[in-house]
Design goal:
heterodimer, A: about 350 residues, alpha/beta, D-Maltodextrin-Binding Protein, domain 2, 2 domains, 11-stranded mixed beta sheet, 12 helices, B: about 280 residues, mainly alpha, MetI-like fold, 14 helices, globular
Amino acid sequence: MKRLCLSITLIFAVLATTDCLPGPMDGSDGSKGVVITVYGFSIMKEPLEKSIFPAFAAKWKAEHGSNVSFITSFAGSETVTNQILQGAPADIAVLAIERDVDRLVQGGAVKNDWRARPGKGIVNTTPFIILVRKGNPKQINDFPDLAREGVQLIHPDPTSSGGAQWSLLAIYGSELKKSEAASGAEDIPKATQLLHEVWHNVISTPGSAREARTSLETGYGDALVTYELEGLMMTQAGEPFQVVVPKATIFSEHPAVMIDRSLTPEKRPVVEAFMNYLWSDEAQQAFVKHHFRSVTNDLFNQANPEFVKIELPFTIELFGGWDKAYPDVIQGVFINQIKTR
Amino acid sequence: MSANVSGVKHTRGFDVIKPLSVSVLIAIMLPLVLLPLASIFVFGTSNGLTSFWNALVAPEAIFALKLSFATSFWAMIFNVIFGLFAAYVLSRYAFWGRNAIIVMISIPTAIPTAVAGFALLLLWGPYGLLGRYLPPDMQIMFTPYAIILANIFVTFPLAFGVIMPVLETMSRSLEEASATMGASRWQTFWYVTLPSLRGAIVGGALLTFARAVGEFGSTILVSGNLAGRTQTAPLYIFSKFNEGQVEAANAVAVVLALFSFVIFSVLFFARDWLEAD
């Protein structure tokens, strides 16, 4: 009995004196200064982690002498939004769609004045393209080709991914835009029909744009509608894929917001400085380096020859903004008429 | 009595049923379990052992493994102590509602782990039923403690499930003898009951630990999935896979696969020692 008692006490003593749980890596003990927590949608990872975080930390250190470090979590935009609404400790969120910011505003996490920043709160933009396997074996040249029989499409899940919603709007809107250019009137039934037929060919709905790309890379499907930068990243890495540029497509716009709800007074000036930094020339050029398009200066974009040219580009304004696009197209057309059938 | 008990005709020297049944066994296991596991090893090391090793010693990977093991350890400690206590009470006392309690302990088995995570969030989250009354610096969700809570929930019935049947079928005569010799209830438990439960306790503990280390569905909801802070090994694997870094995902997956192999080998080969007495 004594021996057992002793050994149990010993085990607990050892556990109590050592670290019971591994401490956070980010130095919340103060060694790394202020820690900013950033929740981002899937494809924001590279520009933020590879360029913008280190550059801002260096700049802050040079100007103020103190350290700043970042911790991150990346997932589909809707998922990130839901996590923050449930109380996840974010200081900044970079989201794929404005609708998610609106949800954060309604949830009391973000102040209503988020559009007061440069670019109306939008930090960067990128057109939606079609990604196909090298050599384009299925001869996909525009969105209508995705509706052909025998084409297998990977499409992120619109309930968790913002990119998926942009993709739906790109396919649907392209038909509106083209019919308007041809006959002067938007052909809504034709656009609905196209979206319906394309959705019929979807074989898998991963949770985020990046997850969808991984699915395609691991060998599933013939095509993926996604952000231009995903295609540029893949082709530059020498992967066996190529970008197909649709005749008409949407430019997605990605808002960055400060989560006012949880900001402490000592953190606020740093987070505020970082928010302003996102629209600085330095950060905007970093986005362009990582294949996003700048919202502040078109010269940055023109300096990057890799960007594709789109004949009939459009934005969310084609639908009258997100306030209309979500109820009319995502809810009204996709969820009510297509998904449930 | 005839030697032909099983009804199978034994030919002298060579029994054809034996190699046949073993082959069928392996043939069934191969596509269902063995090949998927093997593919993790193949893909994990496809770029060479150096890059496998580099993926493994990445600080975020190391942290994720440490966090998984630590949170699973505390969940295991709690659930073994609770399971032992619950099994003792429920096997020694008959009372109204006893069966209801047994059923309730088993409920987490059939609950999807995502539901478990969501339920914890709705209760302890910053806007949850109870969580809203906690001061901001004492919030549990999105910290490692939330991961421990989630692990406790999903592995709740495991240790109990292993200990309870052993305790129920255990011969009471030794305990009774101990009591008639003047031992207190505590002494009887400590010297008589507990030693004969050794195997069940270790088995239940390892099972709980192994299951908790692999937990994903509830952890991703309650942890916030912050790399280097609340990202466990399964979350790390999932994030890396989503980012397209299959190599990094596989390196950690290989560690988890080896780990579960070790755990169940220990369970198997220590059987004799554990079931002695």
